[in-house]
Automatic annotation (TrEMBL):
<dbReference type="InterPro" id="IPR003607">
    <property type="entry name" value="HD/PDEase_dom"/>
</dbReference>
<feature type="domain" description="HD-GYP">
    <location>
        <begin position="1"/>
        <end position="183"/>
    </location>
</feature>
<dbReference type="Pfam" id="PF13487">
    <property type="entry name" value="HD_5"/>
</dbReference>
<feature type="domain" description="HD-GYP">
    <location>
        <begin position="201"/>
        <end position="385"/>
    </location>
</feature>
<feature type="domain" description="HD">
    <location>
        <begin position="223"/>
        <end position="345"/>
    </location>
</feature>
<dbReference type="InterPro" id="IPR052020">
    <property type="entry name" value="Cyclic_di-GMP/3'3'-cGAMP_PDE"/>
</dbReference>
<dbReference type="Pfam" id="PF01966">
    <property type="entry name" value="HD"/>
</dbReference>
<dbReference type="InterPro" id="IPR006675">
    <property type="entry name" value="HDIG_dom"/>
</dbReference>
<dbReference type="InterPro" id="IPR006674">
    <property type="entry name" value="HD_domain"/>
</dbReference>
<feature type="domain" description="HD">
    <location>
        <begin position="26"/>
        <end position="133"/>
    </location>
</feature>
<protein>
    <submittedName>
        <fullName>HDIG domain-containing protein</fullName>
    </submittedName>
</protein>
<dbReference type="InterPro" id="IPR037522">
    <property type="entry name" value="HD_GYP_dom"/>
</dbReference>
């Protein structure tokens, strides 16, 4: 793992897909906002360093919406606060804070107007408006006339005149519509990202993973710091069971990211104090699938993605999402499953209080005797705590 070099664009782009899941929006919403804002900024002749902020700001513009308990008007400032923790990207915070401000002062949360609004935020505002109103079918070409009418109507009102004119100029390029089509977007945005991309090293990857873990856990008051605790437990179990140091660090990252797919689960289900319906339960167990689906998008993290996605698998094949059995589950995946189970029992849940240590130990041993958990991992955890 120490030799890994992960693409910043790929990592941020993947997380933008997770944010789309959190909002119940179609996948690639944030990517399309980033593309439209970037291309419009190019028409304005913005310098490369400012276009970089527009691009990454577009990918992460709704990062503040993860906490569904916040009023919608608060999410730009919440997103700005999260953004200040992003290694290599702290400069996008003011842009995210202002991406719902309108030229005429009718936006939120600060009521800025005119030149008070950073041009980068004005670009995100326009792109987000277009995408939200006209992008439901992944194809803007059939609604081109409606888009032009919308931009011309809002020019000088909610939209800055110079930004509106640049966007109308951009719409003269047929390739814009082709690039935004679902089957073409990934390649189009990857091509545009090359000038802004960079490789990130272990320290930055860990920092980003910690941020993503905290964002996921902020989705529910019952999971605060859950991912950090799972990661720490898994790391120490790996050390105790003799895994190489590099693999222990990899296991730590898998622990931080194991619940990334929970962004796809509505908060109302996560926080429900009553028994879940079959449909709600199916949404819950899908989170492990989405964890794998998202992390597999990042070259170099394939092994980590498998471990993270397998944290609800059982050795007897009774787990989910893939019903894997013992011969398909390596030691790191077994460790993560035990660490997550332990921390879940030790935390409060909407339907029960945290269990006492003796009860947790009993349940862990019960799972090991039944052949669902690796007995060696369970005993290592009991000795650890």
């Amino acid at each position: 793992m120490d030799s890994w070099k992960v693409s910043l664009f790929t990592l941020i782009s993947t997380f933008s897909l997770a944010l789309d899941l959190a909002e119940n929006k179609k996948l690639e919403h944030a990517q399309r906002v980033a593309y439209l804002a970037l291309r419009t900024g190019e028409k304005l002749g913005l310098a490369p360093d400012r276009l970089r902020l527009v691009f990454y700001g577009g990918l992460l513009h709704d990062i503040g919406k993860v906490n569904a308990q916040l009023p919608v008007e608060s999410h730009p400032l919440a997103g700005a606060r999260w953004s200040t923790q992003l290694p290599l990207l702290t400069e996008i915070a003011p842009i995210i804070a202002a991406h719902h401000e309108a030229w005429d002062g009718s936006g939120f949360p600060l009521g800025l107007s005119g030149e008070e609004i950073p041009i980068e935020a004005q670009l995100l505002f326009l792109a987000d408006q277009i995408e939200n109103q006209f992008g439901q079918d992944y194809d803007l070409l059939p609604v081109q006339e409606r888009i032009v009418a919308f931009v011309e109507k809002e020019k000088g009102k909610r939209l800055a005149p110079v930004v509106a004119d640049a966007y109308l100029e951009l719409l003269q390029e047929p390739r814009v519509y082709y690039d935004l089509a679902h089957r073409n977007l990934a390649q189009a945005i990857r091509r545009r990202s090359q000038v802004f991309d960079q490789e990130i090293q272990q320290a930055s990857l860990k920092h980003l993973a910690l941020l993503f873990a905290d964002l996921v856990d902020a989705k529910s008051p019952y999971t605060a710091a859950h991912s950090r605790r799972v990661a720490n437990t898994a790391f120490y179990l790996g050390q105790t069971l003799g895994l190489p140091a590099a693999q222990c660090r990899q296991l730590y990252l898998a622990g931080l990211l194991h619940d990334l797919g929970k962004l796809a689960v509505p908060s109302a289900i996560l926080d429900k104090p009553d028994q879940l319906t079959p449909q709600e339960y199916s949404r819950i167990i899908a989170h492990a699938y989405y964890t794998e689906r998202l992390l597999m998008e990042i070259p170099g993290l394939e092994e980590l993605a498998f471990w993270a996605a397998a944290h609800h698998e059982k050795l007897d094949g009774s787990g989910y999402p893939s019903r894997l059995r013992a011969d398909q589950l390596p030691l790191p995946a077994r460790i993560l499953a035990v660490a997550d189970y332990y921390q879940a029992l030790a935390d409060d849940r909407p339907y029960r209080a945290a269990l006492p240590r003796e009860k947790i130990y009993h349940l862990l041993r019960q799972e090991a005797v039944a052949g669902r958990f690796d007995a060696r991992v369970v005993e290592a955890l009991l000795n650890l705590f």
